[in-house]
Design goal:
TIM Barrel; alpha/beta; eight-stranded parallel β-sheet; about 45% helix; two-stranded antiparallel ribbon
């Protein structure tokens, strides 16, 4: 297999509409991408959604990751015909362990029935003040031990039903008030505070067997003095998430199309930086022309760099191993 075949498996892409666009289908056929991500704009009803996913999987010679954000509360992409549950904050305030397990279990059952195999949940960030945090109700709260317990229960509930869970947003996005969709936030806190608070829920999720962790677009100058966002930082991804927290699963970036990346880096270079940082999956949610440009530029970079090719091959093997759990 040529390098393109390995590289394309590292990309998870979104598309417009309630059916797969004709111009998108080649990305699923030869040298297929690793997966697709679904949004409200892709969903008319559950019958249509199930058929869309069936077609996508039938086009690809390798199993696809089919991803969605179904967190509860307002952050539910599927709004009808599947069980709807409150936000994480609701369960955190009540310290409702049984309710958390039930909500994530029933959600996972519904997703599995539709053919969705990755729920980009739970949010495990600590949020002390939901009024000022960009995450608000999406977080279980600000008590690290409580959030760690609820995170563990959520992960177990999702994955028992045969759906992969994803803990987000590493290294912790709950204490900033700038939205990475718009600009690059920065958190000046030191490693000791992150480790003693923010990383407890991630450690708990990892101990519970979490399959994926999402890195976020957050600059942490006291974790990585280069100022690179966590999603592009090898020090944070490989040094901390893998080296110190011991995570051995799939690392996925948040959407590289967000303003935090777009306003600070050439998008065509960001994917290469993320792969070199240790990310295994690159999320690009919108704009087919841009997606193709990024993939082509990453391929050109890989052909020139033995180190980048090495990272791609390593990620490919990790992805294929994880996909064996999907069948």
């Amino acid at each position: 297999m040529e390098i393109r075949g390995y590289l394309n498996q590292l990309f998870v892409l979104g598309f417009e509409g309630i059916s797969i666009p004709q111009e998108f289908k080649p990305l699923l056929r030869k040298d297929p991408i690793g997966g697709i991500i679904l949004f409200e704009e892709n969903i008319e009803d559950t019958k249509q959604l199930r058929e869309l996913i069936r077609e996508a999987q039938s086009l690809s010679p390798l199993p696809l990751f089919v991803m969605i954000d179904q967190e509860g509360g307002e952050k539910n992409r599927i709004k009808k015909e599947v069980p709807q549950f409150p936000s994480n904050r609701f369960y955190g305030e009540k310290e409702d362990f049984q309710g958390t397990t039930f909500a994530y279990r029933e959600t996972a059952k519904a997703l599995k029935g539709l053919g969705i195999n990755v729920n980009l949940a739970p949010v495990v960030d600590l949020v002390s003040d939901p009024e000022s945090s960009i995450l608000g109700e999406r977080s279980f709260g600000g008590d690290a031990n409580l959030v760690a317990k609820l995170s563990s229960l959520s992960v177990q509930a999702i994955q028992r039903e045969g759906v992969m869970a994803c803990a987000k947003h590493f290294p912790g996005l709950g204490e900033v008030n700038i939205d990475p969709h718009l600009a690059l936030p920065s958190d000046p806190r030191g490693k000791d505070e992150f480790s003693s608070r923010d990383w407890l829920p991630f450690r708990s999720a990892i101990a519970s067997g979490i399959k994926l962790v999402m890195t976020t677009h957050l600059a942490c100058p006291n974790l990585d003095p280069t100022g690179l966002p966590a999603s592009l930082s090898r020090e944070i991804t490989e040094g901390i998430l893998r080296g110190e927290l011991g995570f051995e699963g799939i690392v996925i970036t948040d959407d590289l199309g967000m303003g935090a990346i777009r306003e600070n880096f050439p998008l065509e270079e960001a994917a290469s930086l993320a792969i070199q940082a240790g990310a295994n999956l690159i999320l690009l949610c919108h704009n087919l022309e841009e997606q193709l440009e990024v993939m082509e530029e990453t391929l050109r970079n890989a052909l020139k760099s033995e180190a980048l090719r090495g990272e791609i091959f390593h990620s490919y093997k990790r992805i294929i191993k994880a996909k064996k759990d999907l069948t």
